[in-house]
Specification:
This protein has 155 residues and is an alpha+beta fold. It is built from five helices and four strands; from the N terminus they run H-E-H-H-H-E-E-H-E.
């Protein structure tokens, strides 16, 4: 009498293969977990750095500000480019955010985003809206270039 069920040899072969490859599979799983943990740690560092260095601009509308549907759509498209401008920053740190606050009875609107996208955040999205950056005007110093001495002139 045969103690093995019919056509069960493949089951025994699979069990033998699993037992033979178990140490290799354990090393492979440990290496995969290490790579995953390192990637997760690096992403968290990138997000933390991006959130620590955010750019804030103030958006100030005029008293006659009344945007049309096209202007709102264009501005939404402009804000949609912020994550692409923050290349290399994970989505959690690359998002743009609108913040509203009330100071002395006046509502103020701030647009905040990653530092890499500062140029896009400072672009005016509407015709009747002024965008002020956090930098003061006196911080901007003009660059002056001296003309080279012309032949026959004394320096």
């Amino acid at each position: 009498m045969n103690p093995q069920p019919p056509n069960a040899q493949w089951l025994f072969d699979a069990a033998h293969w699993i037992v033979w490859s178990a140490p290799y599979l354990a090393v492979l799983v440990a290496a995969g977990a290490t790579v995953w943990a390192g990637t997760a740690w690096r992403r968290s560092q990138l997000v933390r750095e991006a959130l620590a260095h955010r750019t804030v601009v103030e958006v100030i509308p005029t008293s006659t500000f009344d945007p049309g549907e096209g202007e709102v759509s264009r501005w939404a498209h402009q804000l949609g480019r912020v994550p692409a401008a923050a290349d290399g920053v994970p989505a959690r740190g690359a998002a743009a955010r609108l913040r509203y606050s009330v100071e002395n009875g006046k509502m103020r609107c701030y647009l905040e985003g990653p530092a890499q996208a500062a140029a896009i955040l400072a672009m005016p999205g509407f015709a009747e809206v002024e965008v002020r950056t956090a930098r003061a005007q006196q911080d901007i110093r003009p660059i002056r270039f001296n003309l080279p001495a012309q032949p026959g002139e004394r320096a």
